[in-house]
């Protein structure tokens, strides 16, 4: 269903990221995923140990979501943690499980405090990983990342074109929370083939916004947005998150084929409200 909707000019499906906990108990996680599916998510995406911190394996979680909830799921696969043999074995296993798509990315670096004990692999770049996976001939659609927040966006466009040549069918973008990101998204729509899913991440507090600006590569939050959260409690923060996310969705809609929503801190109820708001906006057009 996700692939069909993504290729339908009249539809913009929701791909919703829900990252796994660092606990083997997935009761709350699966309840959250079910809530997202019932609200209209066509695809659940699962990051591969974001920020270099381990959680439940993204591929195993994607398989569990697909089996138990009957919805398409997409693991993110990084170049960081696996050599070629492990990557090949994992891709074969995902195909055997019926996982029809994967997002192949470089991956966040290992945190400095862990590097004495945890060593990155990087047998691939994201481009060579795409080529390697495409050459396996699996029944799997391969997606890549596009950083619309990059200062040197010409370089990002060049990398994106190479990723398409290496087998990517489309791109999941970083969140659009600045005017520069929106302009870069417009450029990507004009310059690139392939499908575009526009990134939206709800900012839920001033601390959350400042942390993303200072610590997460590829995410920029406009200072004007940060200032709106000063002194806001949780309820006010979620209300602002909803308003700002809906405004971002309206701005990016003309340039994308689908929405890529990133769930903050397992706040699936917030995501349900945002999806409902976006659908209302789409019906009003």
Note the quaternary state here. single chain
- Average pLDDT taken over every residue: 96
CATH topology: TIM Barrel
Number of helices: 11
Low-pLDDT parts are: none
Number of strands: 8
N to C succession of SSEs? HEHEHEHEHEHEHEHHHEH
Kindly report the spatial arrangement of strands forming the biggest sheet: 1-2-3-4-5-6-7-8
The fraction of residues assigned to DSSP E strands is 15-25%
CATH structural class = Alpha Beta
Helix content: 40-55%
Distance between the termini: 23 Å
What's the Cα radius of gyration?
18 Å
- Tell me which CATH architecture applies here: Alpha-Beta Barrel
Main beta sheet strand tally, sense and closure: 8 strands, parallel, barrel
Task: Give the domain tally.
Answer: 1
Structural class: alpha/beta
Shape: globular
Protein model, in words:
The structure is a single chain. By secondary structure, the protein is of the alpha/beta class. It is 46% helix and 16% strand. It has a single domain, classed as TIM Barrel, CATH 3.20.20.220. An eight-stranded parallel barrel has the order 1-2-3-4-5-6-7-8, surrounded by six helices. The relative contact order is 0.13. The mean pLDDT is 96.
């Amino acid at each position: 269903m996700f692939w069909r909707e993504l290729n339908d000019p009249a539809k913009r499906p929701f791909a919703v990221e829900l990252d796994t906990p660092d606990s083997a108990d997935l009761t709350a996680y699966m309840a959250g995923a079910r809530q997202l599916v019932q609200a209209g998510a066509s695809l659940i995406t699962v990051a591969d140990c974001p920020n270099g911190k381990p959680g439940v394996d993204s591929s195993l979680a994607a398989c569990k979501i697909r089996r138990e909830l009957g919805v398409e799921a997409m693991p993110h696969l990084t170049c960081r943690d696996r050599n070629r043999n492990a990557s090949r074995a994992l891709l074969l296993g995902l195909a055997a499980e019926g996982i029809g798509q994967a997002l192949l990315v470089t991956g966040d670096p290992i945190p400095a405090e862990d590097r004495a004990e945890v060593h990155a692999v990087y047998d691939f770049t994201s481009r060579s990983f795409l080529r390697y996976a495409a050459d396996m001939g699996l029944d799997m659609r391969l997606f890549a990342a596009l950083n619309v927040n990059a200062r040197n966006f010409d370089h990002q466009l060049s990398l994106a074109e190479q990723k398409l040549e290496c087998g990517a069918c489309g791109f999941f973008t970083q969140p659009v929370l600045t005017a520069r990101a929106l302009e870069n998204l417009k450029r990507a729509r004009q310059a690139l083939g392939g499908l575009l899913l526009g990134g939206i991440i709800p900012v839920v507090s001033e601390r959350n916004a400042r942390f993303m600006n200072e610590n997460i590569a590829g995410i920029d939050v406009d200072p004007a947005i940060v200032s709106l959260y000063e002194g806001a409690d949780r309820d006010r923060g979620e209300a602002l998150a909803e308003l700002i996310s809906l405004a971002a969705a309206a701005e990016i809609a003309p340039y994308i084929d689908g929405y890529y929503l990133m769930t903050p801190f397992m706040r699936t109820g917030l995501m349900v409200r945002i999806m409902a708001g976006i659908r209302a906006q789409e019906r009003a057009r």
